[in-house]
Amino acid sequence: QVCRQDGINLTWEQYTQKYLGYTDTECIACILQDFGREVTPDKINDLFLRKGVLFARYIEQNSIIMAGVVALLENLKNNNVICSICSGALDKEVKFILEKEGLMDYFKVIIAAEHVTQGKPDPQGYNLCLSKTNDLIPGQDHILPDQCVVIEDSLWGIQAAHAAKMRCLAVATTYPPEQIQLAEMVARNLTEVNTETLGRISG
């Protein structure tokens, strides 16, 4: 919607195929460049702020929680599995959604776009997420990268997880299964996933 306001006809297919994995600022800069527009900090910030207003309005009026999320989080909690979030969205957006849906208490750590300098497929976010999570675990019984299972829905996210030496379950909610086969396991949606499923991936 923001792009269309500026005469840029970005389709959903174009967005998912090329830009979905980026942080907002990376995404906007790449779109401007690809569509032959001037790329300046002021222009990036302008689109960034307008997108934030539209997104806030949307999530106030709509639930964007995937089917199966609540049941999965409750199942993981009951089996003492620690959960954290590494997202390319803004911290305030992630927390607003979690608070609105009553899901905040399920997560130990939230790493968002402004906490890193490189978005996915760079592993920086996942490395930081694990480090911050381990900081909250008492004693020396820290989680190792290969003990982590990342749940992702994009190729960029899968690549970031693997670059961080973590394993990955991909859900085919954004891309068809054949496009996310790089993950250790692919599920159609989160209703198919539970603690046992993730345990088979982590070994």
Overall description:
- The protein is 46% helix and 8% strand.
- With 203 residues, the chain is mainly alpha-helical.
- The protein is built from nine helices and five strands, in the order αααααβαβαβαββα.
- The strands form two sheets. A three-stranded parallel beta sheet has the order 3-4-5. Strands 1-2 form a two-stranded parallel sheet.
- The termini are far apart.
Structural class: mainly alpha
What number is the mean pLDDT?
93
Largest sheet: 3 strands, parallel
Number of helices: 9
Assess the beta-strand content as a share of residues. Answer: 5-15%
The largest beta-sheet arranges its strands as 3-4-5
Low-confidence stretches: none
3D shape: globular
Q: How widely separated are the two ends?
A: 43 Å
Output the helix-strand order. HHHHHEHEHEHEEH
Number of beta strands: 5
